[in-house]
């Protein structure tokens, strides 16, 4: 794959000149007794991913975004954001053609491909594009749909409906507390760079045999609809605007120094692509940091075993969408595109709402589950003892960067509610367990006396608890 693609894989490299070469996995380096990187730790505590190229290990980095991994000083030309205005129908026609070319470049010569299919709009567009290639006989191979989640979830039910309409077999992977526990250890094995709740059934898909490749559509919302975590591109906040160290897990002194380095990392990445507008930089940062370091990093679990390609990532595709005025990157584009694809895909509701896509005022068409997992409940109940034991075992406390009183407090104060959805604290507790396992396994070292514990740490801890209690009080009141 060209490294000019958004979904291209980031490798690992040592910043020590005597260690040459790039490697696909952190485990391919000898990291025994290496030092923790507090800057990467703070990134995950703040945003659920490390910024820029940092890993949990000082001295080992990811290869840069949009650069040849064997020449980190290179810079691949990145399409510019523009203000071209086209009608929705024009956009859909051009978008479809580019997606067909992108898909064909990956599937050509392959006998059997898998498609990660859910009830979302991105994956059904990928499915529709592949079905179109089959109908035109540009792709003559077979397709297997791959989905995961609760049996009664919209994601699973809608994915099965789409697969049936296209005449494709479907493999359904169940999510469970046991799989989530394995993912806690898997995230640790892969460097604890993200919360294990994002790994879903990726390890199980990687075990499949007979597939020549897997297609994913994870970049669709961001490219096709200009939306990142529910925010449109012209309304994206500064990447450091919120979700800071709100649970006071890190010592104030360590946090202050690490935060300054995060800001320096962000500034350095912007300098690699000079002359952009603020709107452009903010979208680029969502791709460079969020999409690359959280979402795409998890997908490496599949890519290790079966070649995986992220649709919407070809420069011809995202470059075209970036060339449009932000006002043209709307939900209407998906609606028009889906109307051009086979399978009457618009008749199947959107899993997010249960309503027909792009018709928010219509009624919900079913009572299937909008979520596809019970991660919050499983973490707080089934896996609680294991997680608390890992966080409390001393591995994190010995690093010298954590507020140990906060670790103890959240182990005691972590709610025991059975609500199914995982919240930010649940994600952090799962990640801290993975980090603890990673630190123990590799004997990662910390800082003995550099970051002192002071009164500011206790104030931060009580503020975090107060915020958490007020937040949950309001949630309970809203449910009444």
UniProtKB/TrEMBL annotation:
InterPro entries cross-referenced by the UniProt entry: Asn_synthase, Rossmann-like_a/b/a_fold
Gene Ontology terms for molecular function: asparagine synthase (glutamine-hydrolyzing) activity
Gene3D superfamilies in alphabetical order: HUPs (3.40.50.620)
Gene Ontology biological process terms in this record: asparagine biosynthetic process
Source taxon at top rank: Bacteria
Asparagine synthetase domain: residues covered: 113-227
Name assigned to this protein: Asparagine synthetase domain-containing protein
Species for this entry: Idiomarina xiamenensis 10-D-4
């Amino acid at each position: 794959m060209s490294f000019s693609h958004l979904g291209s894989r980031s490798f690992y490299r040592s910043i020590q000149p005597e260690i040459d070469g790039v490697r696909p996995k952190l485990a391919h380096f000898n990291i025994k007794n290496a030092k923790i990187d507090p800057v990467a730790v703070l990134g995950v505590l703040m945003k659920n991913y490390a910024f820029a190229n940092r890993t949990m290990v000082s001295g080992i980095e990811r290869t840069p975004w949009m650069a040849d991994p064997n020449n980190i000083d290179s810079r691949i030309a990145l399409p510019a954001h523009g203000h071209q205005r086209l009608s929705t129908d024009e956009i859909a026609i051009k978008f479809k053609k580019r997606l067909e070319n992108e898909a064909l470049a990956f599937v050509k010569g392959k006998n059997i491909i898998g498609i990660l299919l859910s009830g979302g709009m991105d994956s059904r567009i990928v499915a529709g594009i592949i079905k179109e290639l089959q109908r035109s006989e540009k792709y003559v191979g077979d397709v297997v749909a791959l989905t995961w989640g609760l049996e009664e979830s919209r994601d699973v039910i809608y994915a099965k409906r789409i697969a049936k309409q296209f005449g494709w077999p479907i493999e359904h992977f169940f999510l469970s507390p046991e799989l989530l526990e394995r993912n806690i250890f898997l995230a640790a094995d892969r460097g604890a760079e993200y919360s294990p709740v994002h790994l879903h059934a990726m390890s199980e898909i990687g075990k499949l045999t007979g597939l020549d490749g897997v297609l994913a559509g994870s970049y669709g919302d961001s490219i096709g609809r200009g939306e990142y975590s529910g925010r449109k591109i012209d309304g994206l906040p500064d990447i450091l605007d919120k979700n800071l160290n709100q649970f006071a897990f890190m010592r104030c002194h360590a946090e202050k120094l690490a935060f300054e380095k995060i800001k320096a990392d962000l500034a350095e990445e912007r300098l690699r692509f000079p002359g952009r507008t603020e709107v452009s930089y903010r979208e680029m940062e969502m791709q460079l940091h969020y999409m690359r370091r959280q979402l795409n990093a998890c997908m490496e679990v599949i890519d290790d075993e079966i070649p995986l390609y992220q649709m919407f990532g070809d420069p011809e595709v995202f470059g075209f969408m970036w060339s449009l005025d932000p006002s043209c990157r709307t939900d209407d584009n998906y609606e028009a595109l889906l109307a051009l694809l086979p399978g009457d895909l618009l008749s199947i509701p959107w899993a997010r709402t249960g309503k027909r896509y792009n018709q928010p005022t219509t009624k919900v068409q079913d009572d299937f589950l909008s979520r596809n997992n019970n991660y919050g409940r499983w973490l707080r109940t089934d896996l609680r003892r294991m997680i608390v034991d890992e966080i409390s075992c001393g591995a994190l406390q010995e690093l010298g960067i954590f507020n140990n009183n906060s670790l103890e407090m959240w182990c005691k104060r972590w709610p025991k509610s059975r609500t199914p959805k995982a919240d930010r604290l649940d994600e952090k507790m799962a990640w801290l367990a993975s980090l603890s396992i990673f630190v123990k396994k590799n004997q990662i070292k910390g800082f003995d006396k550099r970051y002192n514990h002071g009164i500011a740490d206790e104030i931060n801890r009580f503020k975090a608890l107060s915020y958490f209690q007020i937040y949950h009080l309001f949630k309970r009141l809203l449910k009444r």
